[in-house]
Amino acid sequence: MYERSLDRPRRDPFDALVDVLAAVTRYDILLGIVPIAFAVALVAASILSVSTGQAMFGAALVGVFVVDACYRNPPVDQESR
User: Fold this and answer.
1) pLDDT tens-digit readout, 20-47
2) pLDDT of residue 81
3) Per residue in 65-79, is it b (16+ CB within 10 Å) or e — as a string?
């Protein structure tokens, strides 16, 4: 059994990346900040003389601001206005 390729035109990977990045919204970026904040907090706790709990508290504060931006002021569909 052999796989048969589809007769689709090849798409440039750079064009696909540009399309994905163009579709990113403010809320996607905010939600991406949360895991980055926790990763930075873990690195900071290991490098600096800060306890892990204190570093996680700082990352959790970043998460609170994201909750405010996403849930208290949720994204609104522009077509519904």
Assistant:
1) 888 888 888 888 899 999 999 999 999 9
2) 56
3) ebeebeeeeeeeeee
70 Cβ neighbours under 8 A, 6+ residues apart: 27, 30, 31
Q: What is the mean pLDDT of residues 40-62?
A: 92
DSSP letters for 2-31: -----------HHHHHHHHHHT--HHHHHH
Structure tokens at 81: 């206005």
pLDDT of the residue at 80: 59
Contact in structure between 34 and 67 (CB atoms under 8 Å): no
Q: How far is CA 59 from CA 14, 23, 40, in A?
A: 33, 27, 8
